[in-house]
Design a protein that fits this description.
The chain has 389 residues and is an alpha/beta fold. It is built from 13 helices and 12 strands. Helix 4 packs parallel to helix 10, helix 5 packs across helix 6 and helix 11 runs parallel beside helix 13.
């Protein structure tokens, strides 16, 4: 099946739909987009200008600038326990979304199946389809903190299964998989001879004493793992569009070929800035400041959601909360559209993260406290009109 035929099977993103609706309306407080409200730290901007002035304005290697790959390898050894060769096992990418598709394209063949625990980021299933595979959605349970159960994975695995996608900390739930959770998943991967794509873009945004564990760091798992990460959430660099992957050499080689015939390479002066940023203590001070701010917002939003009368799990990472709207008797599309129209508050329908989640919505707290207070005040009035005080 051609790429054009695959595209016909992929619907537009519901997140983008609500983003566009919001842009056409006045007075809307948006809790829909997962983008840091912080500006990129000034010293990183200065490094980009420095890169420009030093002449980093030409094509770079398909795999990314050596100085950035080396800095990434240092970061992966220090923070993730991944001992990688920056020359052969790292590639710098345009954002951290495209490399999921690149990884899938490197591994699966037409008709191969990919396990996706849901609720899941909106791009995963369409990317599996674009790569010629079949997404197999594996529901989780709110009462188990939305963590994938091995028993459920076992029910959905088949002879055609090639890949499992995991995302921790998770978008949209904020769930963080513990080391014990990761070890169970690793055993499942090895037993069935699968590969795992591990999306770790929110790795530094964890709260309540939780720690991030990279599955590729476990003994023998690197050869099974594509670790996807980026700079958008860590350093508030969403518009800079810079990501990276650590994976076995043969996968990186295939990803490099995709770069050769599509984007060629990421922007070189941005790569220069990122390489310098990774080695600058000020960058990590900024990360800690952002994390602490999100943590305070998490506490506020979780408390307000519960006071409003909606059930929600406390997120331990990322900057999302995924409350149930069962009490309203509405599905997620009707609820979200009515909330936007009547209260001028934008959220994302849970249906966007899997068909089983039409009784939830995603709320992002990546906005300032003033906006959060106003939005949740409006949400409270809206919900209590529906379910009573």
């Amino acid at each position: 099946m051609s790429l054009g035929e695959q595209l016909d099977r992929v619907p537009p993103s519901l997140i983008r739909r609500f983003f566009e609706l919001t842009a056409r309306m006045s007075g809307v407080v948006s809790l829909a987009i997962g983008e840091p409200d912080f500006d990129t730290p000034r010293h990183i901007k200065d490094y980009a200008v420095e890169g420009l002035m030093k002449g980093f304005t030409r094509y770079g290697p398909n795999r990314g600038l050596p100085m950035l790959r080396e800095a990434i390898a240092e970061k992966l050894r220090r923070d993730n326990g991944l001992d990688v060769d920056p020359e052969r096992e790292v590639i710098v990418t345009v954002g951290a979304n495209m490399p999921v598709l690149m990884g899938l394209a490197s591994i699966i063949r037409s008709g191969d199946e990919v396990l996706i625990p849901t609720p899941a980021f909106v791009s995963y299933a369409p990317q599996v389809i674009l790569a010629g595979g079949k997404p197999v959605l594996v529901p989780t349970r709110p009462e188990e903190d939305f963590k994938p159960r091995i028993e459920d994975l076992e029910k959905h695995v088949s002879g055609k299964t090639k890949v499992l996608i995991i995302n921790t900390p998770n978008n949209p739930t904020g769930t963080v998989l513990t080391r014990s959770d990761i070890e169970e998943i690793a055993d499942f991967i090895v037993e069935h001879g699968l590969y795992v794509i591990s999306d770790e873009v929110y790795e530094y945004l964890v709260y309540d004493g939780y720690k991030h564990t990279s599955i590729g760091s476990l003994n023998g798992l690197f050869k099974h793992t594509i670790t996807v990460n980026g700079f958008s959430k860590t350093f508030a660099m969403t518009g800079w569009r810079l990501g990276f992957v650590a994976a076995p050499e043969w996968i990186i080689e295939k990803m490099t070929r995709i770069h050769m015939y599509t984007v060629t390479c990421p922007v070189t002066f941005i790569q220069y800035a990122a390489a310098k940023a990774l080695r600058d203590p000020r960058s990590w001070e900024a990360v800690e400041e952002m994390r602490n701010t999100y943590w305070k917002r998490r506490d506020y939003v979780y408390r307000r959601i519960r006071e409003i009368g909606l059930e929600a799990n406390k997120p331990h990472g990322a900057f999302y909360i995924f409350p149930s709207i069962k009490e309203t008797g509405m599905d997620s599309m009707a609820f979200s559209e009515k909330l936007l129209k009547e209260a001028r508050v934008a959220v994302v329908p849970g249906k966007a993260f899997g068909p089983s989640w039409d009784d939830h919505v995603r709320i992002s707290y990546a906005t300032n406290m003033g906006n959060l207070e106003e939005a949740l005040d409006r949400l409270e009035v809206f919900v209590r009109k529906i379910i009573g005080s």
